[in-house]
Design goal:
The complex is a heterodimer of chains A (346) and B (155).
Chain A: H1 13-29, E1 33-39, E2 43-45, E3 51-53, E4 59-60, E5 65-67, E6 73-78, E7 82-86, E8 91-99, E9 102-117, E10 128-130, E11 135-147, E12 153-166, E13 169-173, E14 177-181, E15 191-192, H2 200-213, H3 215-254, H4 260-310, H5 317-336
Helix pairs in contact in A: 1-4, 2-3, 3-4, 3-5, 4-5
Chain B: H1 3-23, H2 30-42, H3 45-50, E1 52-58, E2 61-63, H4 66-78, E3 87-93, H5 106-114, E4 121-127, E5 130-140, E6 143-150
Classes of the chains: A alpha+beta (346), B alpha+beta (155).
């Protein structure tokens, strides 16, 4: 295992131009999440890797994250009438992904808890929501999403509808229903939350107990999800290389057209769509790679910390088995997902 | 010694002390790192958290969350772990190759590059629980902060 030489996969200036073009088009459609209330000292981690204190009025754009500590809380307004509440000890991120030719906003928390209230507005798409393990579609919804320290997720619906899909199984939730999704596995059976008080701290403590009962099995769930992300990232990376080749050829063609009007038409009708496809492919392989990084950082990292610190004086056989399997998973991650990441992502 | 000579000698000693203070950061001074370890072993978790930088490096894992860092120290306390009877065997500045001692991965390389302090130090510390590598840097008054550690070394 060594340091990856990343120079060969830096998108060319041409692709970056295409990305900027498609991003600027998307920005016109996408909505920012604006901070309207906060407590404590939450942090804003921007897409380019810089970290600052979050403040009132700041806006989150695709790629940005809010990180809260134990005494922090953030409320954001999204669009005209939707709200997002980031609870303590949470990492909340907004990303974009292209699906079926359409740019989608994905809001997820790789740790902690987030409560959403979406008021459906005509002609506007609600974002997908989830954790670093699973994403769900929502419709006019009040929903809480909890991320467990071992990669599992919990969706609790207060109103509206949520469709949770993972590992080929979809569960539809309506008012006062909840479902848990283990990392790498399908959603469990949905259950009613009427009369049940659910808070992230207690739920996460319970997930930690389950993890400690069989830490190696829990690792396998995360490993399976990481592998899925790696496969998707690799596929989109191949798509990017193919699209780039075609786009580059079309760009070269532009210079060979003498007639101004004809050149402009070729640029707009032929090259721009190809450049847009190239930009979307970059967006998608980055989406899968960054989702994998979130899972690796906030689930795998947390699991390692729990096992290492509990076994630092007298390493148990179970810990040694965990450590060996953990090393294999991290090696696999480094050799696959890291190929698509930049230093500023870390 | 005549009075002028005594003044000159004192001035030279003061200058020498000031120069040594200016050139060796707190995070790379044996006695200050010892003070850090003593605090980590004995003070309450709130103070330990103040002395701990985030993101924190535990072996090859980057802990970004306050919750994880707190859990780390609490777990260590629960199992009875401290940097007990710590002896600093080596202490010097972090360099471009230090990361390999924690893990030869992109995560660790970038963590050393982006998240350590400008005055980052690396201490090799032997304790009753084994030998550890500790990354120090920055300071809170005269005590450096801990940015990460790995260990105990095996073999």
């Amino acid at each position: 295992m060594g340091i990856t030489n990343r120079s060969h996969r830096t998108p060319s200036a041409l692709v970056l131009a295409a990305l900027l073009m498609s991003w600027s088009a998307a920005t016109a459609l996408a909505q920012d999440a604006t901070v309207v209330y906060l407590e404590g000292e939450p942090e804003l981690r921007e897409a380019q890797g810089t970290t600052n204190w979050l403040d009132f009025g700041m806006s989150l754009r695709a790629g940005d994250s809010v990180v809260t500590g134990g005494r922090d809380f953030v409320e954001m307004e999204y669009g005209d009438a939707s709200t997002i509440e980031v609870q303590p000890d949470t990492v909340f991120t907004i990303r974009e992904v292209e699906r079926g030719g359409e740019r989608r906003t994905v809001m997820s928390n790789s740790a902690g808890a987030v409560k959403y209230r979406f008021n459906r507005l005509t002609g506007r798409h609600e974002p997908d929501i989830g954790t670093s393990s699973v994403v769900a579609g929502v419709r006019g919804t009040e929903v809480a999403v909890y991320a467990g320290g071992e990669g599992s997720s919990l969706f609790v619906v207060e109103s509206g509808e949520v469709e949770v899909t993972a590992a080929g199984r979809t569960v539809s939730l309506t008012q006062d229903e909840a479902v848990e999704v283990p990392a790498g596995g399908p959603p469990g059976e949905k259950y009613s939350v009427i009369g049940r008080e659910i808070n992230h701290s207690d739920w996460n403590a319970n997930r930690l107990d389950v993890f400690l009962e069989d830490p190696v099995e829990a690792l396998e769930g995360v490993a399976a999800r990481l592998e899925e992300y790696a496969v998707d990232a690799a596929e989109w990376y191949r798509n990017y290389l193919d699209a780039k080749e075609v786009s580059d050829a079309a760009f070269a063609q532009i210079g060979e057209i003498d007639d101004d009007e004809e050149r402009q038409e070729y640029r707009n009708e032929t090259w721009r769509p190809l450049a847009g496809q190239t930009g979307n492919a970059v967006l998608n392989y980055r989406y899968h790679a960054l989702s994998a990084l979130s899972l690796r950082r906030h689930a795998l990292g947390s699991m390692y910390m729990e096992m290492k610190t509990r076994n630092i004086l007298n390493p148990s056989d179970e810990y040694k088995e965990f450590r060996d399997r953990f090393a294999e998973i991290v090696d696999a991650f480094d050799s696959q997902a890291d190929r698509y990441l930049e230093d500023t992502d870390i | 010694m005549k009075r002028p000579l005594r003044i000159i000698a004192t001035a030279m000693l003061v200058a020498l002390f000031a120069a040594s203070c200016a050139t060796v950061p707190v995070s790379q001074r044996d006695n200050r790192v010892e003070a850090l370890l003593t605090e980590l072993n004995t003070t309450d978790i709130t103070r330990v958290m103040e002395l701990s930088a985030r993101p924190f490096l535990l072996d090859g894992e980057i802990l970004t969350q306050e919750r994880d860092l707190r859990a780390m120290w609490l777990n260590l306390r629960d199992v009875g772990f401290t940097f007990q009877s710590a002896t600093i065997e080596e202490l010097g500045p972090v360099d471009d190759t230090t990361y390999r001692q924690f893990g030869d991965t992109m995560d660790v390389r970038v963590w050393f590059d982006r998240y350590t302090a400008k005055d980052a130090g690396l201490a090799r510390v032997s304790t009753t629980h084994g030998t550890f590598l500790i990354v120090t840097g920055d300071r809170q008054w005269r005590t450096p902060r801990i940015f990460g550690f790995t260990g105990p070394e095996e073999g």
